Amino acid sequence: AAHLYGGAPARASEINTETEFALNLWGVDLPPPVEELLAATPDRNVCLVDFQQQSQLNKAIPMGNIVGVIDHHALQSNTIVTEKPIFVDIRPWGCMSSIIAHSFAVQERYLPKNIAGMLLSAILSDTLNLKSPTTTAWDERVAAMLVQYLGVDDINELAATQFRAKSRALSLMTPYSLVNGDMKQFKFTGADDSYTVAYSVIETTDAEASLARVLDILPEMRAVKADDPSVHAMLLAVVDIVNLTSTLVICGRVEASLAVAAYGGSIEADGHLLRLPGLVSRKKDFIPPLTKAVKDGWQPPRLSTDGTLNKSTSMTDIPHSEVIVTPEGKLVRADD
Asked: Among 112, 140, 126, which residue's Cα sits nearest to residue 28?
């Protein structure tokens, strides 16, 4: 998007291992943090790419600096608010990068091959190799165009290599990184109350390996709520991108109540897992049922004698120590 519209690329958060793989594969430099660019030029214009919710906005970005949005997600109750008209390109496609690649073609702009490669990798990631229910005919057309332009011999092999690289790296990630690496916050409004839900996703070719670490992951999920009082529930989905199914990790009673209300089924005997067969997309499969559950009147269990919301059945085992970076570059708790 930056190359297309003459801007400077920036990242709003740390990148995940799949993005790192794609950057290395296509020979693209890691963009600087948006904080650095805004520190140098505080009044710099900003275009949001792949999101438009205030809960997902980097705190360094003033709302008044936003001049554009390019996205493919639903407009929910917590969408950004601007004082003046801005450029908006939101389409119901499976990937934002399909929109960018299409815009290059429509505007007859030269598309460098390293950027084309990044766009293709993003499409394969977002649409799970064009198998996700969010995939549209436009995503398929754009992917085919990029494959031909780049001379990719086998798109399935490219996707498999990319997914394997991501899954191998997951085994080396700390519980903190697994929980926080791909987390978004969503605000749901019901008849009487609004609730903020943090929702993490781990996409992998080896779901059982991630699920085997549940007891290490649970404290970090609870820590999200302890560290941010505005978060009422914390959910994490382990997505099996081979078999196109997911397992939801449950860290407390509020989460169990909300998950069953939204998705049905029953929590497994250990109280920590809910199977979600056939559901793989946060945008299309995971979030809409939560929206409906809250609109239909779901309310969290109220355990306190004064009727206030108890945000977790158990806040024990929550690590309160600070997050530090090890010499190997891993994010861990100081007392780990």
From this structure: 112
How far is 161 from 159, CA to CA, in rounded Å? 5
Mean pLDDT, residues 310-317: 44
CA 252, CA 36: separation in Å to the nearest integer?
Answer: 38
CA dist 57 and 150 (Å) reads 33
Contact assessment for residue 271 and residue 259, using Cβ atoms and an 8 Å cutoff:
no
Domain boundaries, the chain: 2-167, 173-333
Residues 289, 138 contacting (CB under 8 angstroms): no
Q: What's the token pair of residue 130?
A: 């064009």
Token pair listed for 117: 């490669």
Domain 2-167 has CATH 3.40.50.300: no
- DSSP 8-state secondary structure symbol assigned to residue 79: B
Characterize the bridge pairing of strands 273-276 and 245-250.
antiparallel
Residues 55/185, Cβ–Cβ less than 8 Å: yes
Contact 204, 170 (CB under 8 A): yes
- Dump pLDDT digits (tens) for 149-174: 999 999 999 999 999 888 888 888 89
4 CB-side CA count, 13 A = 19
DSSP-H helix ranges across 228-270? 253-263
pLDDT of 140 above 60: yes
**134 vs 67, 175, 223, CA distance in Å?**
27, 28, 31
**Closest C-alpha among 43, 34, 44 to residue 11:** 34
Superfamily, domain 173-333: DHHA2 domain (3.10.310.20)
- Return the SS3 of 237: strand
Contact 34, 11 (CB under 8 A): yes
